Amino acid sequence: MNTTASEITEQRALLVEDNPMIQKVHTWMLEELNFKVHLAGTGRVALKLLEAAREKGYRYDIALVDMNLPDMEGAEIIKVIKKCHSGTKVIVVTACVSDQVINSCREAGSDLILKKPITADILKGHLNTLLDK
What is the number of structural domains in the chain? Predict the structure, then answer.
């Protein structure tokens, strides 16, 4: 990935993903794009990070959310993000893109749905569009 710091300045990203390998890959992609990544391996951890951000007076610029977490559905997290952190853009990254999942994501307020696996260039392009870079 050929990205310079001037292209995308450091922003905050919430990564909600339970698979350790995908956590590493997506963290790397986001860090290469100058995002400070906060990782949540479960829905409960994601909700705690969102609450801590609200209490500290900041929001996440972007959230990458897996739909199938061990303790809750990604749609629940998306609803909290959209209610409490309205400026945060939400990208669902999921292996399952059935009509039911797509409808659930849209109803929850996701900004974009991507099918796993994703590449760094695809993520960069969508982030640039979503964040008006």
Answer: 1
